[in-house]
Specification:
Blueprint lengths: L1 H18 L24 H28 L12 H37 L3 H7 L1 H16 L8
Helix pairs in contact: 1-3, 2-3, 2-5
């Protein structure tokens, strides 16, 4: 009987995941826009790298915000307090997030590999300008940290 229940829940979760629309909360941070320094604007390889980094940072940020928003109703609840519907919803949230993080990880690996190639041909002044990608990522991490500083605290 438990096996049938587990199979049924698994099928429901898979259907929900496959049919879920990617509704984004309207209170997400605005997409990060990296201003490319003038020292780098003429280097097509660097511009492509920076724009790709911008895209990955925004996907990562959006995924984290979706996780925060979607899971907030479950903060502080024990598994025993959750209905089957809540457990399915929480499982879906987790699967969606893991899927997005896997995609993010693959994109990040590609960017890291291309970063070494791109940086190898830059002058010291260009390398300083190139640090804008790291600064942009740190900025977004700081913004997320500030926005969700009190996440899960009972009011």
């Amino acid at each position: 009987m438990k096996a049938i229940k587990l199979i049924f829940i698994s099928i429901v979760v898979l259907v929900l995941v496959s049919c879920s629309s990617n509704n984004k909360s309207t209170n997400h941070l605005e997409p990060l826009k990296i201003d490319i320094p003038k020292e780098l604007k003429n280097n097509e390889e660097v511009v492509i790298f920076i724009e790709g980094s911008e895209s990955v940072i925004n996907k990562w940020s959006d995924s984290l915000e979706s996780l925060f928003n979607d899971s907030e109703e479950f903060v502080g609840k024990s598994e025993d307090d959750l209905s089957i519907k809540d457990q399915i919803k929480l499982t879906q949230i987790g699967l969606d997030f893991m899927s997005q993080m896997a995609e993010f990880g693959a994109e990040m690996t590609l960017l890291e590999n291309s970063a070494a190639t791109v940086q190898s041909g830059l002058s010291d002044k260009e390398l300083e300008a190139f640090d804008i990608v790291k600064q942009a990522l740190k900025l977004r991490i700081d913004e997320l940290g500030e926005k969700y500083r009190n996440f899960g605290n009972k009011k």
